[in-house]
Design a protein that fits this description.
This protein is an alpha+beta fold. About 35% of the residues lie in helices and about 35% in strands. A five-stranded mixed β-barrel has the order 2-3-4-8-5. It has a two-stranded antiparallel ribbon with strand order 6-7. Strand 6 and strand 7 form a beta hairpin.
């Protein structure tokens, strides 16, 4: 056997060994990459929750009443000032240091004095009064989508 034959057999064996090792490493890399992606997706909801607790995503009520874009989702944090129960639904007035707004919900109404954080959708109810020259005296309100956090002070 000459040197070329030895080199040829050795290189073929070496390439086969390397391709098997590379496939094994690639499979492990792919599994690790999937684990990182899943972990990242799970932690996205934790980032949102942390941002809400730090008031980073929370809108001010006065901004909604002046610049509210209908159907936009918002996070609001405030204190429940009053309640209006209806059949199968209800509403409560949420107040922060900039103003107040009514929140319509199908969930159980929170108690007065409760500090609450919600996710909701901006809505507008038009009310045209003909006696005022067909002036629209409607107002913005929020349709509650989710209650994020609730701290009850038992002041009812």
């Amino acid at each position: 056997m000459n040197y070329m034959q030895i080199f040829h057999r050795f290189s073929s064996w070496f390439l086969l060994l390397n391709s098997a090792l590379l496939n094994s490493l690639f499979d492990k890399f792919r599994i690790i990459l999937m684990m990182f992606l899943v972990t990242g997706l799970i932690s996205c909801s934790q980032i949102t929750q942390t941002a809400i607790k730090l008031n980073l995503n929370v809108s001010r009520i006065d901004q909604i009443q002046t610049k509210g874009k209908i159907d936009n989702q918002v996070y609001l944090k405030g204190t429940v000032e009053s309640r209006a129960p209806f059949i199968e639904t209800g509403a409560y007035e949420l107040t922060d240091n900039t103003g107040s707004i009514w929140i319509f919900t199908t969930a159980e109404l929170p108690k007065i004095g409760t500090e609450i954080t919600i996710k909701g959708k901006i809505r507008y109810q038009s009310i045209v009064v003909s006696e005022l020259g067909n002036q629209d005296v409607g107002d913005f309100y929020i349709e509650e989508l989710e209650r994020i956090e609730e701290d009850n002070d038992e002041q009812q």
